[in-house]
Amino acid sequence: MMRRAGPHVIAPLAVALFAAAATAAPATKDAAPRGDAIHGEAIYARCLACHAPAYDRTGPRHCGLFGRRAGSVPGFAYSAAMKKAGIVWSESTLDRFLANPLQVVPGTAMGYAGVTDRQERADLIAYLKRENASSACTTR
Amino acid sequence: MSLLMLFDDPSLRETAVRESRRAFLGKSGLLLSGAAVALMAGNDALAANAKSVESDVRVLNTALGAELEAIAAYQVGAESGLLQKPVLDLAVTFQGHHKEHADLLSKTVAKLGGKPVAAKTKYTFPVETLKTQADVLRFAASLEKGAVSAYLGAIPVFDNRDLAKAAGSILGDEAMHWAILRNALGEAPVPSAFVS
Questions:
Q1: Is 70 exceeded by the pLDDT of residue B8?
Q2: pTM
């Protein structure tokens, strides 16, 4: 006689199946949202107490951000935590950092809770990319 | 209750006393950190507290740096010759508020055993874009709006609720600056029901 599997067996199996299904699901479900640079400019207004695209302020400049190692703008006084963060800024590392700066780089001077909305982060990153490609950044 | 009293409440004083040991040892060059000392002493709770205080001090120092920059920015605006009365008087008043914020933040950092950041010897501002009174107002409004957002983002990360409350008080002041500057520019002073 075949033994029936008890709930204690079924539950882990179900979890594993759901996990496998999630892995096999179309990537579009979890894909990063498309950023809107125009909306991102409005989001960037939140950063203007400390940042500017082209020059250092309380926070470092954002021109040259993509591909730059965190904590590496010459002459800017970074926290020790940022200098040793080992991050190279890209869309994905920015997305992670902006979601919760203090969790991603504990000890960062950027004492900010983060941009929790995924679409807003995508928009902000799209704006930063647009600015970095503009003459405001490329001529400096 | 005045803002000064907020920063002078018993819980802060108690924290400051705990931190004074760290500050003393730090000055004597003997200390890794307050957290390290507490851990070595086997006091996990104190270690956690010291780490929280360190974090709060970092947030306060960042806010202080931004306030000092705002003071310098208003100075540039006031000396630009572009602001006419009564707008000039407003700018000077707002600069005075930022000086009060900076003074309080600096004293609080020191009270918690930290070293307050000093004003930079030189700030960079987009002076080449400031040609009219409206340009100066728009620039000041952008800084004030940014400050509102910065304090809004800082409030949830303060470990000490009294510091969060005080930051909320500063946020309110800077939001009023932002609204008045927008109004002076002929824009809706309060553009939405929420700030972000």
A1: no
A2: 0.80
Q: Which among A134, A19, A40, A47 has a CA at the least distance from the CA of A91?
A: A40
Partners of A50 on chain B (C-beta within 8 Å) are 62, 65-66, 146, 150
A35, two tokens: 């950023």
Question: Which residues, other chains included, contact B25 with Cβ-Cβ below 8 Å and sequence gap of 6+?
Answer: B31, B37
Of A94, A45, A54, which is closest to residue B146 (Cα–Cα)?
A45
A58 has pLDDT over 90: yes
Q: Which residues are registered as beta bridge partners of A88?
A: A69
Chain A: closest CA distance from residue B41 (Å)? 23
What residues in A contact B177, CB-CB < 8 Å? Answer: none
- In this complex, do B157 and A111 lie within 8 Å of one another by their Cβ atoms? yes
> CB atoms < 10 A from the CB of B190, how many?
12
Of B92, B69, B96, nearest to B80 by C-alpha is B92
